[in-house]
Amino acid sequence: MNIKGEVVRVFPSDTNTDEIISGKYKYDELDLNKLAKHTFESIDSHFYEDCQSLKNLILVAAANFGCGSSREQAPQVLKACGISCIIAESFARIFYRNCFNIGLPLIECPDISKEVAPGEDLEVNFDVGVIRVEDRQIELRFKPIPTFMQELLEKGGLMPYLDACGGYTD
Amino acid sequence: MEQFSEGVSLQTISEKILSNRSGVDAESGEIVAVPVDLVFAHDGTLPLAIQQLGDHKVKQPKKVVAFCDHASPSPSEKVSNVQAFMRQFARRYGMDFYENGDGICHQIVLEKYASPYQIIVGGDSHTCTHGALGAFATGMGSTDVAAVMAHGKTWLKVPETVRVEVSGELPQHVHSKDIFLELVSRITADGATYKALEFCGETVEAMSVESRATLSNMAIEAGAKVGLCAADEKVKAFLARYGRSKDFKPLYPDEDAVYAQQVHINADTVVPLIAKPHRVDNVVPVTELEGKELDQVCIGSCTNGRIEDLRDAARILKGHRSKARLVVYPASRGVLLEALKEGIVEIFLKAGASIGPPGCGFCIGRTVALGDDEVALSTQNRNFKGRMGNDKSFIYLSSPSTAAASAVEGRITDPRNRDG
């Protein structure tokens, strides 16, 4: 699998799911496309708008991205904003699981928040674990995603994956 | 990990539960599929889980529980419509459903459902609370909740364990909340990411299940998957108190279990602590902040809204009038009834408190919100920017004793300087 895209933002360490989508909206709205308009509203008010004008977006962050609340609305609104992949130095556990469950690929890459900047074009090769920074001809390496997680992504997330294999095998 | 000739390893609590329930010798790092004993979600996570469930049927409705506790009682038409959607779903399947005012999902699960060796999946990050009863209980997102509803199982990576040993005696007005704040200030907010925390030592053994639940509840604030305690005589007595003696099974880690990390906390030297905005690991002694003016003091939440928390606060508030706005949300209807019987409600009312219906209340800012630039001291678990409904406000976290002492003065106050 390969993804090409532009870095839309680089977020700092410990960016939490309350910041991705505030608790003040998530109880009101079941339509994720409408909810997406409030993505990062409290810390980055132009985020949603900027995502509209770009295609194939890649989000970059430092350590522990997506910590805090288990709200799956967080990865769902990022997906609805057009984010095709998130690269961070590390992820919080529940957020990590939620992303794969909805078919949104994540990559853990050391120092990524220092290596790339918003506006740069990246090409991510999931099979060999390489991120190419197009303009600067730099290659960054990451540990490829475990096979099981790759299968989840290929099937489009956990529910379609379990449907395809007929549930859990005993 | 060291293996014996029988192939049985020396196991942590996590490994014991996951081996027992998966039927394989579950060592940390392995992925196992396990049957789920209880799956629950609330008004913030169940509606999305129902959407993700799509055309699938709920396999075992008796193992699914739904709660209206977060935006509760509903503050708007939109929220009411979302809650109606989940209410209809719960009724259609005949699953247990808890209404606005019944209490916070975690308190009700502690009282009525959780027990040792169970696998519990909750659509809420603080599901780790139930580790206090020896359950492998972990928070997941709505799709995982939907998958468990459809298939009755989940997959789990067996976590490595950080062993937190607490020894010594807690000084007066120092509580398990202070122990956790001490821990997270040392290991940081992602210090246990993907790992299990196991709380042990004489101080934990001496604690009530309620105090242990505060430790387990906050495990996620250090990134942990679960926050486990042994299932001992205290757990047995707790279950008996709620008419569930038959659910008890003793559960201890093996003496020579292998841990990824060991942390030791000497309770004798722990002081009342506060987490400053906007991070839970931004911890200082209360003495460093004494005198800071407060607009609102909040007592309650799944961290510290249990009867012993209300007792701690009432002892200090008795005979005083709060100088800050005081908001109290008991964790469940049962807790509120006990507080009523013990005269605690009267103490709070005379102190000027506004007592909310059992539920999450102030903690997620959907029914009680702060104003711009306001400062709150709360007994909850999170002080993220915007958590209490306003990203221009400031949240400090403490134990109920520190919160009560601070309410009396209207500014941050060391509870050791108060009577009670």
Structure report:
The complex is a heterodimer of chains A (170) and B (420). Chain A has 170 residues and is an alpha/beta fold. Chain A has helices at 17-20, 23-26, 32-35, 47-52, 73-80, 93-101, 112-115, 147-155, 158-164; strands at residues 2-11, 57-61, 83-88, 106-108, 121-125, 130-133, 138-141. Chain A has one domain: Aconitase, domain 4 (Alpha-Beta Barrel), CATH 3.20.19. Chain A is 32% helix and 22% strand. In chain A, helix 8 (147-155) crosses helix 9. The longest helix of chain A has 9 residues, at 93-101. Chain A is globular. The model of chain A has no long low-confidence stretch (mean pLDDT 95). Chain B has 420 residues and is of the alpha/beta class. Chain B folds into three domains: 32-156, Aconitase, domain 3 (2-Layer Sandwich); 158-269, Aconitase, Domain 2, CATH 3.40.1060; 273-413, Aconitase, domain 3 (2-Layer Sandwich), CATH 3.30.499.10. Chain B contains 14 helices and 18 strands. In chain B, strands 4-3-2-5-6 form a five-stranded parallel β-sheet, covered by helices on one side. A five-stranded parallel β-sheet of chain B has the order 16-15-14-17-18. A four-stranded parallel β-sheet of chain B has the order 10-9-8-11. In chain B, a hairpin with a 7-residue loop joins strand 12 and strand 13 (283-285). In chain B, helix 11 (307-317) packs parallel to helix 14. The longest helix of chain B is centred in the N-terminal third of the chain and has 17 residues, at 77-93. At the A-B interface, helix 2, helix 5, helix 6 and helix 9 of A face helix 2, helix 3 and helix 5 of B.
